[in-house]
């Protein structure tokens, strides 16, 4: 039982690799619960059925566990307010949508995607922000009934006040005022009956008795919709806290195109979770110089949610490296260190898989570090000459690397078969033989053209490491491309 009644949550959408930004928000919530003797729970928000996958869900859960951010309730362990996965709660949302329709707070909208696109197009052309124009608000009850009877597809939208503003106090931003006329008549239930994020999020936070909603600042503009839903239902709203996003050193939004953002990437490279949490935790406490090395318990003691800066959390890899080095050297005992190394080498079964692939390719065990070391290395020293030995020109190599990269992003389930299928499709599309396409990839992944089978190696390395190595390879090859005249 909580002593304070405080209940907070992390609510990831399993639509991609587990993001360090998720760990950052999760850590805030975790520390908040710890400080108040409350509970921290995990809910999976997979209302976007086309982008959510079981693989990503498992990875998010594993990554947050790896971080040491344990939850009291969640899809893996259950709890009193389950299920904790929105797709398993689908049938719970419909009655609430009906309630809003009955009370006149929501309406059915039959507009086709084509009409909505034309409407937005016209609004953009007139220099206005795209927003639903309310056409279906004018339908009579009889018109709605007959359209429904005729089987016309519809969504349910919420009504929005036409005047005034939504004023609220954000735990981080302070007083916020957002004019209602800038708020869209949000779709609550989609054509397929699935709720949208906004609908499911508010209902679940209420049913799961969440008292404080701490999340990224990208959701600040959605608060009016959420507050309105709480009012429509007559529910008490939670306290909102919107944290500034993590940014690259140049202040741009942290994105995988610039820096690796996947927690799996950092664990694969041998960052230790305490150091990553230490790095993220420093965004939430005020400390004097020299006090940087802190454990989770120490953070909970120092945690001060009232005193966060809005300046933004800079993802400074050098600082993370520095903290990681200090954790390894100063905080781990000899036994702990050795244990960590073994666990790390075994991550994703990569040591076993690597050995399995290597056995038929060596005559002495001592050849193993050279043959399979690339599966464990944090950095490959890519030598441009390894690419120069491939028959294709540097321009062709660059084209291959740049074509493969975005194509691999489309793979939903990352495994040997899907990687092979995608690379074959790329080769077909480019009108090249598969062996021509894979030649630079061998070097990109392992640093050498003689190494373990490519598709298996890529599967073992994982998406995030593969993405980073392709990027490095493209940079290396670009250095071989002569200056254009
Ligand atoms: N599913 C949302 C996300 O992944 C959660 C936002 C929220 O915490 O309300 O960003």
How does this structure look, described?
It is a single chain. With 485 residues, the chain is mainly alpha-helical. The chain has three domains: 7-84 and 246-327, HUPs (Rossmann fold), CATH 3.40.50.620; 88-243, Rossmann fold, CATH 3.40.50; 374-478, Arc Repressor Mutant, subunit A (Orthogonal Bundle). The chain is 46% helix and 9% strand. The strands form five sheets. The protein has a three-stranded antiparallel sheet. The chain has a two-stranded parallel ribbon with strand order 1-2. A two-stranded antiparallel ribbon has the order 5-6. Strand 5 and strand 6 form a beta hairpin. Helix 9 crosses helix 11 and helix 16 runs antiparallel to helix 20. The longest helix has 17 residues, at 20-36. It binds glutamic acid. Glutamic acid binds at residues 11-13, 45, 201, 215, 219.
Summarize the topology:
Elements: E1 7-10, H1 20-36, E2 39-42, H2 54-66, H3 90-102, E3 106-109, H4 113-125, H5 141-149, E4 155-158, E5 165-170, E6 174-179, E7 187-189, H6 197-207, E8 212-216, H7 223-233, E9 239-243, E10 246-247, H8 263-269, H9 273-281, H10 296-302, E11 313-314, H11 317-331, H12 334-346, H13 350-358, H14 368-372, H15 384-388, H16 394-409, H17 416-430, H18 434-446, H19 454-461, H20 463-478
Parallel strand pairs: 1-2, 8-9, 10-11
Antiparallel strand pairs: 3-4, 4-7, 5-6
Helix pairs in contact: 1-10, 6-7, 9-11, 13-19, 16-17, 16-20, 17-18, 17-19, 18-20
The structure holds glutamic acid.
Glutamic acid (GLU) binds next to loops.
């Amino acid at each position: 039982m909580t002593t304070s009644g405080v209940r907070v949550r992390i609510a990831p959408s399993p639509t991609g690799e587990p993001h360090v930004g998720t760990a950052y928000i999760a850590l805030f919530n975790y520390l908040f619960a710890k400080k108040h003797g409350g509970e921290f729970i995990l809910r999976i928000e997979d209302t976007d059925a086309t982008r959510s996958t079981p693989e990503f869900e498992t990875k998010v859960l594993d990554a947050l566990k790896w971080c040491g951010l344990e939850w009291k309730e969640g899809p893996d362990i259950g709890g009193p307010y389950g299920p904790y996965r929105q797709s398993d709660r689908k049938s719970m949302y419909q009655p609430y949508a009906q309630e809003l329709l009955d009370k006149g707070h929501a309406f059915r909208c039959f507009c086709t995607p084509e009409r909505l696109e034309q409407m937005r197009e016209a609004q953009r052309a007139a220099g206005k922000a795209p927003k639903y124009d309310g056409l279906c608000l004018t339908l009579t009850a009889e018109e709605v009934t007959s359209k429904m009877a005729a089987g016309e597809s519809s969504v349910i939208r919420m009504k929005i006040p036409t005047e005034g503003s939504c004023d609220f106090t954000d735990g981080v931003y302070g007083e916020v005022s957002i004019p209602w006329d800038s708020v869209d008549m949000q779709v609550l239930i989609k054509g397929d009956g699935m709720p949208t994020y906004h609908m499911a999020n508010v209902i679940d936070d209420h049913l799961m008795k969440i008292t404080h909603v701490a999340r990224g600042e990208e959701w600040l503009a959605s608060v009016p919709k959420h507050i309105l839903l709480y009012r429509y239902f007559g529910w008490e709203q939670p306290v909102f806290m919107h944290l500034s996003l993590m940014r690259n050193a140049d202040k741009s939004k942290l994105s995988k195109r610039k820096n690796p953002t996947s927690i799996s990437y950092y664990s694969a490279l041998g960052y230790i979770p305490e150091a990553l949490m230490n790095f993220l935790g420093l965004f939430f406490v005020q400390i004097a110089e020299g006090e940087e090395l802190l454990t989770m318990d120490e953070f909970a003691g120092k945690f001060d949610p009232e005193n966060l800066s809005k300046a933004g959390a800079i993802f400074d890899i050098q600082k993370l490296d520095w903290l990681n080095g200090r954790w390894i050297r100063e905080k781990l005992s000899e036994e702990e260190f050795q244990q960590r190394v073994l666990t790390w080498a075994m991550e994703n079964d990569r040591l076993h898989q690597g050995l399995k692939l290597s056995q038929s390719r060596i005559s002495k065990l001592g050849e193993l570090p050279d043959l399979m070391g690339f599966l464990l290395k944090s950095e490959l020293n890519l030598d441009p000459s390894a690419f120069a030995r491939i028959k294709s020109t540097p321009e062709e190599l660059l084209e291959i690397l740049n074509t493969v990269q975005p194509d691999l992003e489309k793979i939903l389930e990352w495994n040997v078969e899907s990687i092979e299928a995608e690379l074959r499709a790329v080769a077909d599309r480019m009108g090249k033989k598969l062996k021509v396409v894979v030649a630079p990839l061998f070097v990109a992944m392992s640093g050498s053209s003689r190494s373990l089978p490519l598709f298996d190696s890529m599967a073992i390395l994982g998406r995030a490491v593969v993405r980073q190595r392709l990027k490095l390879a493209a940079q290396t090859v670009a250095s071989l491309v002569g200056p254009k005249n």
